Amino acid sequence: MLLPFEDGQIKHEPSGLALVRPNAALLESYREACAETWDNIHNRYILHDPVRYDEWKHTIFGTFEDRARGVNLPDGYYPSVMLWACAGDRFVGAVNIRTSQDEALLTYGGTYGYFVRTSERRKGYGTALALMGLEAAKLLGVEPIAITLQESNRASCALAEHLPYLRLERYEADVDGVWQPVRRYWLG
Ligand SMILES: CC(C)(COP(=O)(O)OP(=O)(O)OC[C@H]1O[C@@H](n2cnc3c(N)ncnc32)[C@H](O)[C@@H]1OP(=O)(O)O)[C@@H](O)C(=O)NCCC(=O)NCCS
What we know:
Order of helices and strands: EEHHHEEHEHEHEE
Radius of gyration: 16 Å
CATH topology: Aminopeptidase
Structural class: alpha+beta
Bound molecules: coenzyme A
Shape: globular
Strand content: 25-35%
Number of helices: 6
Number of strands: 8
Number of domains: 1
Strand order of the largest sheet: 1-2-3-4-5
Largest sheet: 5 strands, antiparallel
Mean pLDDT: 97
Low-confidence stretches: none
CATH superfamily: Gcn5-related N-acetyltransferase (GNAT)
CATH architecture: 3-Layer(aba) Sandwich
Helix content: 25-40%
CATH class: Alpha Beta
């Protein structure tokens, strides 16, 4: 994956987190993270089913490459760059940045999404990851940059208040076929 930044270049000094391309050295740590997080996330698109590890371990990196190139995209997917956040050799979380966006995505979905593995939550990593995602989106040349959240996602809404946002909008949007109150933070 050709990116306008090197592995480890985008980092958050206070937390010790750095963004890297998904890689084989982190695969076992990623698998453990998927196992502990699978039942603690409302949108699983950003994870892999830990039970099916033997199926995806050979294809995961090729799939990420395809997504970045915008080829073989499943229905409803946008071209996107997946980056993993690690503390040393431990996988802590991931951020997925959509490099091509339209009105529908900006209404719900947003420029990027992220998660922190269950065992590492409430330590400030989520905020660090969201800030690094913002930096990566800017370096990738994506604009405008907006994150969208369900009002019911209390952790995510609390986190967003720590981000350098320009404007907050609140409205209802179609979330998996159900109208839900959402927030959209335009980031600068
Ligand atoms: C949202 C998420 C990334 C937060 O990660 P985290 O590492 O716990 O975040 P932080 O430690 O930086 O905490 C950020 C804020 O959220 C608050 N928070 C974290 N978990 C919370 C919870 N379960 N309930 C209420 N507030 C919570 C923290 O207290 C903090 O707010 P404060 O500084 O005002 O006290 C994590 O819960 C997660 O991965 N959730 C599933 C995926 C998701 O919802 N992604 C976001 C939408 S794309």
